[in-house]
Amino acid sequence: MSPRIRGLLSFRAWLKARPQAADALLAVGLLAVGLPQLFLEKLPATPEFERFRDPDVWAALLVAAVTLALTWRRRAPLTVLLVICCGEMALALAEYPPGLPDVAAFLVAVYSVAAYRGLAQSALGGLIAFGYFVTFLLMLPVSSSPLTMITDAALVAGVWVLGRNLRLRRAYFAELEDRAARLERARGTDARAARIEERSRIARELHDVVAHHVSVMTVQAGAARRIIDRDPGSAREAMSTIEEVGRTALSEMRRIVGVLRTDRDAERAGQELAPQPGLGDLGELLDHVRETGLSVQLWIEGEARPPSPGVDVAAFRLIQEALTNTLKHAGPQARAWVRLYYGDGDLTVEIEDDGRGTATFMGDDGAKTGHGLVGMYERVALYGGELKIGPRVGGGFGVRARFPLEA
């Protein structure tokens, strides 16, 4: 880009940032072009034009005042229009001939009042300009034909309509830009909400996996420590179970965190992400729990049907978390029961134990405590289900959730 073009673009940007300076340059330009013409141009030698006075210093001052008023045409367009009308009326009453600067200033003022003010003020300015223009034509000593008057009046009306249309166009584009900005902000808000929800979901999954498997490993490690001297074989078996459960926990954690990987990371890993666990994996979960010494029984009633994928994962995690809490709080002699009821359109999941963990589950004020219970409520609510948690009649603790089969 040449330095000249670059300078012109910089000057244009400077004028755009300072609209009043641009209007002042417009007024000075009209005055510089039109004022010499006012003194140098000779009027036709006809009886009608002989009634005009020759321009003098007072005419030049009036023309300059009328033209330079355009400097404030955007800040106060209606006031500028009134000043120009009064100045041109003074020129007409003094019988000075109309010139290019004052006529052009009048048309620019009509355009400005329509382009930079609302409908009420622009309509008032248009009526004032039209009424003044007709009066000005009638006051001229030069007779005008009806066609000329109609043409001149149409010019004034056209300039007003042009300014009004440009104002509406600017408002339309401003609304489009504002709407685009609002949509961009809304998209950013939705993206942040989605990220927060995804973090919460991953946190729930990690809590369920870590809490369950670490609880199983803790119980097995405690058993191995107690019997390692008198029964080394059983201790080795318990340690093997700890190793297996630890590997399972690592595998599930890799799968959960794997959803954060990009496609390139997945290709680099050379394997696809494994599916989430569901009720089909319930037997394996109960086997892990039984290996800790907790007696768990499973009942399935009704016609078993596969629920939606989300409900499948949520029901499995609910059972996993409830059994984990039983392992941690119910005591060494506790027993647990898991029941699945398949209804016409819903699935009811019950997990109960006869242990002594009620006080640990419940706070002093009876409120549920712990991230695990909060995660249970969030999972069930996410799929439009119902959850009840509390002590059983006769001792122990119970968790009962109802899920719609179709989330």
Task: Characterize the structure shown.
The protein has 407 residues and is of the alpha+beta class. Among the domains are: 141 residues, no CATH class; 114 residues, Histidine kinase-like ATPase, C-terminal domain (Heat Shock Protein 90). 65% of the residues lie in helices and 9% in strands. It contains 13 helices and 5 strands. It has a 5-stranded mixed beta sheet, covered by helices on one side. It is rod-shaped and about 135 Å long. Its EC number is 2.7.13.3.
Strand proportion: 5-15%
What structural category arises from helix and sheet content? alpha+beta
Helix content: 55-70%
Rg, rounded, reads 44 Å
Please state how the strands of the largest beta sheet are arranged side by side. Answer: 1-2-3-5-4
N-to-C SSE string, H for helix and E for strand: HHHHHHHHHHEHEEHHEE
Number of strands: 5
Task: Give a quick account of the main beta sheet: strands, pairing sense, barrel closure.
Answer: 5 strands, mixed
